[in-house]
Amino acid sequence: MKTGDVKLEKELLPGGSPSKAPAKKEDPGQAPVIVTLFPLLSMLVAILPGILKHSPGTETVKTGILVLILTGIASFYIKYYYGQLQVKKLAKTIIILGYLVSICLLLYIPNPEYYNFWMLGGLLVAILVDKKLGLLLHFNLSFLLGIAITMNVGTVLQVLVMGVMLCFLSGALQSKSTIIYAAIILLSMDITVAFVINNFKFDRISNYDYLLSMLSLLVVILLAFLISGLYYSMLAAAGDGTDNVGGTVLSAQEVGVTSVRTEEEPYAAMLSQGTRTDYSLLCDLNNVLLQRMRDYSEALYQHALRIGDLSRRAAKEIGADEALAFAGGLYHEMGKMVGKNYIEEGLFLAEEYGFPGELKTILREHNIKYEKPSSVEAVIVMLADNIVTTIEYIEKNDDHKFTEQKIIENIFRMRLDKGTFDSANIALRDYKKLKEFFVSDFSVKQEQ
Q: Alpha-carbon distance 306 to 344, whole Å?
């Protein structure tokens, strides 16, 4: 092991002593509680309608056991990713209340296949906590609908497809400029799926009931938009929502909304590919330096996660060093914890913690004020940070006059014209791939 590797272990690992790269950490006092109580609470809520309606005991027991099993599966996911889920404010409350309320709406309201308000819980979890967990909870509720209520394969298939689309478009449902387009897509998809499932005819569905189904879906979309807006407003009012990042005042919504998926544990994928020990420590989200950044500013921490993940995926797209790009994105603005000249302060911190030379180079080159990027990874981090902060600034101050695609294309053209990529020797095919990647990763908006 290199000397720098030992220094990284001593400095970055909790406790300050050499050890192996730590696995994901759970909160030992909280994770077991939510894992244990979540399925039991869900089962209790599920059997209450049967008790109140004096339904046959076997039906009530069947529903309770089904909910217990399905929620148990979700609980395993929560336990495995608990360390990352708890980064989101009020995550436990959102998960538990969202799911339990959805069970109530599913079992208490007649004709839930039409009155699909129960979809709101999974959608809110996808928007505010974790997209994959939201999708998993929606699958649970859909299977409960099919087995305990409708026994109709077509209905289950339709709500499953709509759940996938809701979670896929969850990012667009948070913005005023995109919610209308997302709603049109979702309602159109609802019509299309129903049309296909019913053998390209609508005669099996009452127009009145079908209209109610569409209206209830629209209500779900609007409620998700309003509740997510209220959530981010509460965070901002509590002091967790704003900070100066990259020269732009960002809200918690702006730094937390993820077309990027910081929940996906990118560093774990890197470890499986044999990345060196120093990067396994640097990319461990539990290390001391990243926790220090989070304690200093939640907004700065979330911004770092976003740029890190975006840079990692961009590097993967063109076969560059994913670990280096991810680490460069994570630490590109860490100097803000120390002083105003964040480049110099970041380099001092990098020296103190024994960062690899190529990573320190990215910290120095990513904003172009000091030097042009000399590596493909530095180019990627520079582009990711530039694109994210520019789009957020324009969306916040320019009334959405430009589409995200137009902004990204202009940034690439401007950097090319100014010779920003000259020192990195980036291939033309990689330049095109990166531009296509960033355009596809952001939601394309039409001019207002």
A: 22
Vertex 412 angle, CA 411 and 414, to 5°: 65
Q: What class has domain 248-441?
A: mainly alpha
Distance between CA atoms of 247 and 252, rounded to whole angstroms? 15
Window from 48-57, 268-277, 311-320 with minimum mean pLDDT: 268-277
Give which of 296, 307, 177, 305 is closest to 244, Cα–Cα: 296
Q: How far apart are CA 137 and CA 119, in angstroms?
A: 9
Q: 27: how many CB neighbours lie within 10 A of its CB?
A: 12
Between helix 153-168 and helix 131-145 the angle, nearest 10°, is 170
**Quick one: which of 117, 138, 137 has its CA closest to 71?**
137
Domain edges within the chain: 31-237, 248-441
pLDDT tens digits along 254-285: 333 333 333 334 444 443 444 343 688 888 88
